[in-house]
Design goal:
about 180 residues, 2 domains, five-stranded antiparallel β-sheet, three-stranded antiparallel β-sheet, 4 helices, about 55% helix, elongated
């Protein structure tokens, strides 16, 4: 069974956004920036208020903390997307942003583009995830085959993903017993 699809820069950004939302490391980093930093700023504000006895310190300090949180929330989402786009556009992307042919076999998956060819056994696949209209077949910690439903040229998205998940689960069950 095979599927042919085209990847765009938007697909790469969507994968990175998904990965950042699900990654424990990025969640921890966001927690540090969104919770701990305002607490530190709040403690500094209270210290300056105690030293100066000026109510303006509390007012301006509170405004600064609220402004920081709002800017951070805006920048976290759009900032990640922009950084991902810039990093990707710095490199030659002809082998990624192109048409892909991905094939399921009994032994694993085989991918072809005009410039690359990849072969991996089912044990090499770390996870298969479907998020909205995209499937991510992870072949590394930050690397996946990204299959966008809307850009499938040949093949059936749902059937392909279900078949890949079945083969992958079967291989995981087989390796657990080994």
């Amino acid at each position: 069974m095979q599927i042919k699809y085209t990847n765009t820069l938007e697909d790469i950004v969507a994968f990175n956004r998904y990965h950042h939302q699900k990654s424990d490391t990025f969640k921890k980093q966001k927690n540090i920036c969104l919770i701990r930093m305002p607490i530190v700023l709040g403690l500094l504000m209270i210290m300056f208020f105690i030293l100066s006895q000026e109510v303006q310190v509390l007012i301006w300090g509170t405004c600064l903390i609220v402004f920081y949180i709002l800017i951070f929330l805006k920048a976290w989402g759009t900032g990640m997307d922009k950084v991902c786009q810039k990093v990707f556009l710095e490199q030659d992307t002809k082998s990624v942003i192109c048409e892909h042919l991905l094939e399921i076999t009994n032994d694993g998956m085989h991918e072809k583009t005009d410039l690359n060819e990849w072969w991996g056994k089912w044990a090499a696949i770390q996870q298969i995830t479907v998020e909205r209209d995209m499937a991510f077949i992870y072949i590394g910690p930050l690397q996946a085959h990204i299959i966008p439903r809307g850009r499938v040229v040949e093949g059936e998205f749902d059937l392909f993903v279900a078949t890949a998940q079945r083969f992958w689960r079967d291989s995981q069950a087989g390796s657990a017993g080994a």
